[in-house]
From TrEMBL, chains A, B:
HTH tetR-type domain location: 11-71
InterPro entries named in the record: Homeodomain-like_sf (IPR009057), HTH-type_TetR-like_transc_reg (IPR050109), HTH_TetR (IPR001647), Tet_transcr_reg_TetR-rel_C_sf (IPR036271), TetR_C (IPR011075)
Protein's UniProt name: TetR/AcrR family transcriptional regulator
DNA-binding region(s), residue ranges: 34-53
Keyword Transcription regulation annotated: yes
Organism of derivation: Saccharopolyspora oryzae
Pfam family, any one: TetR_C_11
Keyword match Nucleotidyltransferase: no
Keywords noted in UniProt: DNA-binding, Transcription, Transcription regulation
Length: 200, 200
């Protein structure tokens, strides 16, 4: 990771810094965040932050990276015998809970907002959150094609954008979804993409 | 509109203020914008701004509203005899040009970024940009259902989210689209939604 200096000397301070950085980013975006505020909220001196990272952007990228485990996987990888529709139905509740989480929603909105002025933050998000899930989803769609539930000539990259994009777009719309609403919404997205077939 | 005071006394100053506000918003988001900066860039005094709007958020909402004509309509409304696929093919070049425009891309990213901390800006964007186009798109999808190219039980709201969401998501991804790429992308989105049928 660029912008990181040396080995962590104090993992506990690092965790407090990353947590404070992510909170400030969620509250005020890149422009509403400063190294001073991060240090203050983490309860450390500015030098402690600068000893590890050389800019607020570098701290924010590390903070975004460190939060990646808060989103569940979009698909298990080792269940080749289970039909895709069944797999998706198993994943729905966990995914719905994750996307109904206000903090995740806020972080995603902020990453999007920063995409133009700070493409390196979007790149970090992209590499840590989007690409791994995209690879798994692509494999799932290829299996659906093999099963015959999805057209053989479907544009898989665009279909993934449509599914993910719908959810991301819905998340920033007025009137947020609760977990039950998120589940119904996800189900309709997967069904519209041709991945769920008829009712269970 | 909330936050606006009285009638415009100086339309030229108003235009300069709204333009400066939108530029600053695109460059630095809500948090990176202040009334002082807006006044300075517009070449007016702070009081001139405060005489018309009571907060930077109110100026930004008016600025977002004022830029709505920069996006072309997603569909003409008075061509009931033309098949949906033909209509969409006619609209594609203009839409592609609009979404390849860096300034529009940046504004959308910023509105999304502000959606959590400043829902009133998203509400302004929603009302002025999204809802009018959504109504037109919905009518188009209902015609496609009547024509039999779209399933009668399709979830139209989710389908609109998938089409719009894909484009918005693509706009903030690394490696921006040029006009030709945007056109190919839009075409694939409309085709994946079942609205274009086979090749022309």
């Amino acid at each position: 990771m660029t912008g990181t200096r040396g080995r962590p000397r104090n993992p506990e301070a690092d965790r407090a810094i990353l947590r404070a950085a992510l909170d400030l980013f969620v509250e005020g975006g890149v422009e509403g965040t400063s190294i001073e505020q991060i240090a203050k909220r983490a309860g450390v001196g500015k030098l402690t932050v600068y000893r590890r990272w050389d800019s607020k952007e570098a701290v924010l990228a590390a903070a975004i990276e460190s939060a990646r485990d808060e989103i569940p996987e979009t698909a298990p990888t080792d269940v080749a015998d289970v039909p895709v529709a069944t797999l998706i139905r198993q994943l729905l509740p966990g995914l719905a809970e994750a996307i109904a989480e206000p903090r995740l929603r806020a972080m995603i909105a902020r990453v999007f907002g920063a995409s133009v002025s700070h493409p390196e933050l979007m790149a970090t998000y992209w590499e840590n959150y989007v690409l791994p899930r995209r690879r798994i989803t692509r494999a799932l769609l290829e299996r659906a094609q093999a099963e015959g539930t999805l057209a053989a000539d479907a544009d898989l990259d665009v279909l993934i954008d449509m599914m993910v994009g719908a959810v991301l777009f819905r998340l920033v719309q007025p009137e947020p979804l609760d977990a039950a609403g998120a589940r119904a919404y996800l189900e309709s997205v997967y069904r519209s993409a041709g991945l769920l077939g008829g009712p269970e």
